[in-house]
Amino acid sequence: MNIRIILSSFIISSIFLCSCSTRKHYSFSVNEIEYANMADVMIEGNKIVIDEMGLDEVIASDSFLILLSGNPAGYVSVLDINTYNTVAHLCREGRARNEFMNSVTATKQIYYRNNELILPIVDNTQFVKEVNITESVKKGNTVVEKTDECVSIVDGYDIFLDNDLEKRFEYRFCTNDQVLKDRFTLPEYYLFSSNQKKEKIKVFPKMMDFQDPTRADAFYCGCLFKHPERNLIVQPFQYMDYILFFDLDSGKNFAIHQPGSLSFDDIIPMKHGKSVYHFCDCAVSSEYFIVLYKAGDYTLSFEDYSRANPEIIVFDWEGNYINSAQLDNVVHSITYDHERKILYGIDRRYDSLYSFDIGSLVPNQNNE
Fold first, then answer.
1. Fewer Cβ atoms within 10 Å of its own Cβ: the N or the C terminal residue of the chain?
2. CA of 331: how far to CAs of 29, 56, 297, in Å?
3. HEC profile of the chain
C-alpha cells in the first residue's frame, strides 16, 4: 500500500479519535469555582419546639413557616414565623377539590399573586393544585385556586414560570432504554409557554461514560429551585459537584463545577464503598441561594455517614461563591428567611425543626 495513503488514513483516524475523546457531554459553558472545604466556622442550631409528626419539608415566607408532613389530618401546617405557633392545618386527605390523596412539593416553589401567598402542591403524583395560604389561614379551611396536570413526580419535576401553571420549565428523569438492556436515556428539559408551545432544551449531547452503565440515572439526579422573582432556575446535582443554571429570561445557560472533582467528560468509575451525596437541598432568596452539601471533608470525617452533619454553601445567582459553614445538627430540608437571616432545617429522623442564624455568612444587601 502507498505510504502516503497509510499516513493519510492514520492522520484521519487520529483526528476522529481525538474529536471523539474531547467531545463535550454538556452543551453550555462551565465555570470552575472553588467552593468545597472552604467553611471555617460552625453554626449552632436552636431547636424549635413543635408538635408535628412525619415532617418532610419546610418553606419560609415573610409571615409564615410552612411544614409539609405525612399527616393525613393536614399535610400542610402553617406556623407564625415570629412565634412558631400553629395557625392552620391545611390540605386534609380526601378526594374533594380542596383535599389531597398525598402532597409533594419537591421544588418547594412558592410565590405571591395579588399580595396573596400561593403554594403549588402536587396531588396524587400528577395534578398540581395552587393552595392560597393567605386565604386558607383567614378562613381556617384549605382554599385551592387553579389546578392543572403536571409531569408525574415519578418522571420528573416542573417549575412554574411567571406564577402561571401553564408556563413551566420541565425536567424529566433518565428512563430505561427500550433497545439496550441495563442502559438509560438522557434526561430531558422542556420549556412550555402559555399557549402550550413545547421547546426542548438540549442540555446533554451524549451520555457520560460509565464503567457501570446501570448507575447512569443517579448521576443525572438533581432537583430544581427557582429564583423568587426571576425565571432563573438552578439544578444542584446529587452525586456530582455541579450546579446547572437556566436563565430563561436572558437565554443564558451555564454550570459551575468544583475543580478536581468528577466532571461530565470523565469516565465515571465503579461504585466502591458508601454512596456519598453532594447537594442535598437548596434554599433561595432574591440575592442568594444556599445549598446543603454532604461531600466535604467535614461531613466525611464522621464515622457514621448516615448521621453526619452537613455544610451549607452560599452562592449568588451569577454562580459566585459567597460563604460557607459547618452545621452542628443533621438536617435534610432547608429554607431561608431573608428578612431575619435565619436558616431553618428539618431533621426527618426525629421530626425536629432547627433554626440557624447565618447573618455572619450573608452580606448585607446595602453593602454589596
1. N
2. 32, 11, 17
3. CCHHHHHHHHHHHHHHHHHHHCCCCCCCEEEECCCCCCCCCEECCEEECCCCCCEEEEEECCCEEEEEECCCCCCEEEEECCCCCEEEEECCECCCCCCECCCECCCCCCEEECCEEEEEEEECCCEEEEEEHHHHHHHCCCCEEEEEECCCCCCEEEEEECCEEEEEEEEECCCECCCCCCCECCCEEEEECCCCCEEEECCCCCCCEECCHHHHHHHHCCCCEECCCCCEEEEECCCCCEEEEEECCCCEEEEEECCCCCCCCCEECCCCCCCCCCEEEEEECCCEEEEEECCCHHHHCCCCHHHCCCEEEEEECCCCEEEEEEECCCCCEEEEECCCCEEEEEECCCCEEEEEECCCCCCCHHHC
Which pLDDT tens digit goes with each residue over 85-99? Answer: 999 999 999 999 999
pLDDT in tens, 258-283: 999 999 999 999 988 889 999 999 99
Q: Look up residue 153 and give its amino acid.
A: I
- Cβ neighbourhood burial of 126 (10 Å; 0-12, 13-18, 19+): middle
Which cell goes with 149? 396536570
| Beta carbons of 364 and 341 less than 8 angstroms apart | no
Cα distances from 355 to residues 20, 52, 92, 132, 297, in angstroms, run 50, 16, 27, 25, 24
Count how many Cα atoms sit within 13 Å of the Cα of residue 249 in the half-sphere of its side chain: 9
Q: What is the pLDDT of residue 249?
A: 94
pTM of the model: 0.91
